[in-house]
Every structure is written in C-alpha cells, then in structure tokens.
Amino acid sequence: MVTRVTNQAQQANSLQNIFRITENLFKAQQEIASGRRINKPSDDPAGIRDALLLRTSISQSTQFSRNIDNNRLYIQAGESALESVGINLIRAKELAVSEVGGLATKETRGFAANEFDQIISQVFESANIKVKNQFVFAGTAFRTQPFEQSASGAVYFGNTERFQIAVGENTNADFTIPGSEVLGNDLNPQLTSSTKLSTLTAGSGITPGSFTITDRSGNSGTVTVTSTDTIGSLISKINALGGNVTASINSNGSGLQLTDGSSVISQALTVAEVSGGGTALELGILGQRDGNISGSDLNSTVTSATLISDLNGGDGLTLNQISIVNGSASGTVTLSSATTIGDVIDLINSSSFNVTASINSAGNSLLINSNSSSTVAIVKNVGTDETAENLGLGGGKNVFTTLFKLRDAFNNDDTFAILASLENLDSTLASVNNNRAVIGASLRRVDLTDFVLDQSIVDQSQQLAEIEDADIVKSVSDLANLEFALQATLAATAQVLQPTLLDFLR
Fold it and tell me: What is the C-alpha separation between 192 and 238, in angstroms, rounded?
C-alpha cells in the first residue's frame, strides 16, 4: 500500500517542527538566563515536588542552626561562670588549710576572712552573670536576679525551670541550668491544692486582681483572685466558669494547666488581664494558645507544713542523718521520722548542739545557726548519705552556705568550724566541677548538632541544585544546535511552502 503525502501534510509537519524547535530554543534561552533547569511546574512536576520538600527542610535546619547561634552564649557564659567559681573555691581551700596550721592566729584568720569577703563577692558576680541583659542562672525568670546576699548566705529568687530551645524536629536542648542546681539550693516544693497564692513567686505572692478566660468556642468568663486564695480555690473558680476550660496543677507540679475541651473551634484559647492588672502574668497563664496553656513555674515557698514528699519538684527527699559541729559539740541528728519541714526543724532544734533551724527569708531553703556568738554551726553529710546536701544545709550544691560558714569561722577564730568546713568545701568544689562538666557536655552536644545541621544544609542545597540548576555548558550547546536546526528547518520549510499554479487556481 502506497501512502501519498500531500503538500498540506508536508506544510503542517514543517510548521510543527518549527514550533517544537522554537519552544526548545526558548527553554534553552531561559535556562541560560536564569541558571535554572526548572522555571515552572510543567518543566518537571516531580522535580518541583522534591525541590519544595528540600527547601522546607533547608529552611527548618537553617532556623535550628540560627537558634543555636543566637543562644550558644548562655551555655558558654554558664561554663565560664562556674570556672570562675571553681577558681575561687580552690583559693578558699588554700586559705582554710593555711589557717588550721600551727602558725594560724586570730589575726591571720581575720585577714583570711577579709579575703573571703572578696571571694564571696566574686562568686556572687559569677552567679548573677548576664547574657543579653538576661540572668543565666535564673532558670526561665530571666529578668529576676537569681541570688541576693543575706546575713547567713544567699537567697535564690529564680525558678527551677531550664531554658530550652528547639535544635531539631522534636528535639530541644538545655541552654541554662537553674542556679539552685549548681550554686545554691532550692527545696522546690510541689504545688498542692492547699498552697497559698501568697507563698508563690519566691514569697512575693500573687497580686489580687481579675483576668478573663475565653475558650476556643468563644465562651468567656472572669476570675477574681483574692489575697486568701489557695491553688485549690483558684482552680475551683476557673472550673466554675461554665465554659470548656478545665484548670489543674501541671504534670510536674510547678504551675497551672488550662485544658480546653472545646469541640467547636472559632478562636485561640485566650487569657487576658482586666483593667491593666498583672495577676494572670504572675500566675504564668497570660496569652493566647492554639491548644492548652501550661503555666510557668510559680516558684512556691516552703512552710512548716510542707510535706517532705512534696519537695524536689514532687519527687520528695529521703532523709536519714545529718552531722552538726558547733564548737566542741558535735554529733548526728536523725531525720528519718520527719514528714514535714516543721518536723525537720523540731528535730534539729531539740538536739543538744545549741543550734536553731529555720526557713530562710525566701522560703526555699533551711538555715541552721549557732545560738552562741562565739561558734559557727557546720552541717555535713554523714558518710555517703546526702541528707545535709539535699536539704541545702551543707556542702555539695550550696556554694554560698559553705563560703559564709567558713568566713564566719575565721571571724570567730573557730578551729572546729574551720576543720569541719574543709569537708564541705571539698564536696562543694566537686559539685561545681561536675556541673561545669555537665554544661561543657551540653555545649559539645549543641556544637555537634550545629555541625550536623550545617552539613545537612550543604548536602540538601547540593541536592536542590542538582534538581533545579541548569547545566549551562549543555544549555549553550543545546542552544547552538537548536539555532542551527531552526535555520535548517526554516530553509526546508521555505521550499515546501513555495506556491504553485494550482494554489492560485484553487
């Protein structure tokens, strides 16, 4: 069978070739001009999809890396501060060792006490170090100076929360450690329904006032807080509003939790102040959330009625024995029967060591002082048991108590107290060095994470380039070939499209 190719078919085929070559020529010109292989979705639908996924991943990794770069200074400052504290503790030990020798006198101990004042001042400076005008060791209470000097040591006013930053998908890193964990001591009592609002925020209490809660369905109600409210009564007031919000103590026992059970969602869960007050802010629940609101640490204080089981963030403390040295009197006090802070105080005060135990002015730690002006009461752990340390009474984490007690021992020319303080000084220095190692490890992990993120960005950017970027050498070669092909096609088409006499007769 013979197929006849008409002039019309030849013309149509020639024109189709011209259009195809022109389109490819234009695409090659676009690739050269833009440097990109894909300039619109139709160029490579699958490639566009992969490119969008890569761009999203690169953007996330870039943000995580930026988070690290913007906040790395907190970790570096914390490590530097603890290094300074460690150096001062070493000097303190040198002084203590020198003042228990045969050449020590009341006068030399007086000189040592003067130097101790300088050491204490430097430790306070390190403990209150700032980055970006924010206190590093205040937990998440950045604007609150964490440590203030008192007559018997230091009082911690920060909270017990760690400042965390997202450094990966579903991954957070600690950029600060609360000062109560590394330098001072905070018994960190868990909130209970009986906790009075007046005992919160390191004893400053919650300012009476009103705030509104609007659930995600739009239901709104006002809560009025009074000076006599407890956590339990406040929760009851919120739950009585009649909306879809339920209040409770959060899972770690440090603050409030607002849970929105709205089935119809028209807006964000909102807590707002009334008449410019600050009650909701102090309660840590102010603002808007797409879901539930988990309040910040309310920094509850201890009272004589505080349960031992409610301390340490609700994990409780295991109490055994503490050792007390007060002048020539020394011995142990057994605290295992205590169920409340009041029990601990009573057991210590009823001992035969002429001391008085009390709660400090911030309500977050215990104090033990000698009833005699000529002696200094030193509290130590018994063996490997850490009861004294956990109660913040001696050694370990309580840097300030250790230093103040030793300085007072110098001033009182109290050889027994100086000798007893040496053990606490060793344990305190070990604790500071351990925490410095923890912070150093955190810095190392953050730096490694940042390196991995940077490498991931480089790798993904290369993959993106392979998908999107044009091969300029190939595109230029293609352009030259297409220009030649177009010229040839146009010349051939000109021959095909030449009119004949029959075209005019038609």
Answer: 16
